[in-house]
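Subject: Protein record for review, amino acid sequence with backbone structure tokens
Category: Structural biology, sequence-to-fold work with a learned token vocabulary.
Format: Residues in single-letter code; tokens as whole numbers, each standing for a residue.
Body of memo: The sequence and its backbone structure tokens, given next.
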Amino acid sequence: MSGKKASRRDFLGAALAAPAVGAVALADPGRAAAQAAGIKRGDLPDMTIKQVKVLVLKAEARGPANAGAPGGGGRGGGGRGGATGPPGERPGEKFATIVTNSGIEGNYVLTDRYFHPNWSNMGWLEYAKGALAGKSVLDLPALTSQWRPSLRRYGQLSYAAAIDNCCWDILGKAVGLPVYRILGAYRDRVRAYASSQHLRTVEDFVADVKHAMSDGFTAYKIHPPGGSPSHDYKLDMEVIKAVRQTGGDDMPLMYDPVGVLTRDEAMKVGRLLDQLHYVSFEDALPTKDIDGLVELAAALDVPVTMGEFVPSPYDYVPYILRGALDEVRFIVDNIGGITSGMKVARMAECFNMMCQPHNWGTTLDHAVHFHCELAMPNNIWFEMTQPMGITDRPYFKDKIRIDKEGYVPAPVKPGLGYEFDRGVLDNMMLRVES
């Protein structure tokens, strides 16, 4: 590529005018939901929580692509029960379910997957039953708040994310609107990039980029081969060059080694990313290495993107104040759900920073981050697990796909916007825990 290199802040700059709506949604979700639907708050159905349960599907229901997070663990369960037994008797996907007195049901997937100091969904059902019985979904801020010393000290309680996401699903269904409309709609579609698996060879990545382009993607992210201690940053650099050559000069490209590089390796790779005009260098170093990240961000032009493994919304502050990142990233499961995700997005916005939520996993994993993206002025990307369709499940009526211009259209159905096919789901049910 030729010409003057755009500065990191030229890329990050952009107009970040916040919508007036949005703040109300975090402080009083019930009021925001009623306002979005054009009704009075008192006209909402009875939002008292009547029942909490876990839907446990048969193991074979998990589908051919049991996609976990790059660099993270595999998918596990959030309820009870072992993993032994013949096919059809082992637990597969599990869904947290909250039901109100008015019969509205909110759902979110329960998994074990990410590096987190306080992460486990085992026991979620018992916790949620004790914490939610007789409470109202309208009290959502109090149900999942981390403003308690023990949580601020040790990291967000993992149980909170599924509770929070289920409650947002209920709020949307109660007023017949997708969640992002309650949060404060900023856009109605988001540009997608194809997010690779951890492929093994340069040739694999070249083929994957070509596949993504043939599907209509206009941007691409590399999850490089291997992982510590076998990681070879020199192979990464060959992949980085080959992907740029394949994608062409104008294709936005990103690189995410999931924190396995040393400081020296990250600097060498980062300089190559600068040379080839990549637009994001994600998790270049281990999350706790703030000093190394400060040094890297100061030296490179490519935006240093961090935050997937930050364990609570309160822990982003030193990274932002010290200049340890240029673009903020979050996983709602790690920080308490959609509510905390939007808090992090607003915090980044206040510092004139872009925010790039994580997307990986099955339909509802994508959905919760998508609603945040649709309500954020300071985001331009939807991360789509590559190849497209690999995370489909037969028990969802709706699929997440890009349009002819490479954007993901906003869901139109209420709540999280992706509806269960109850006939298929019931046929795949192993048990219901309550």
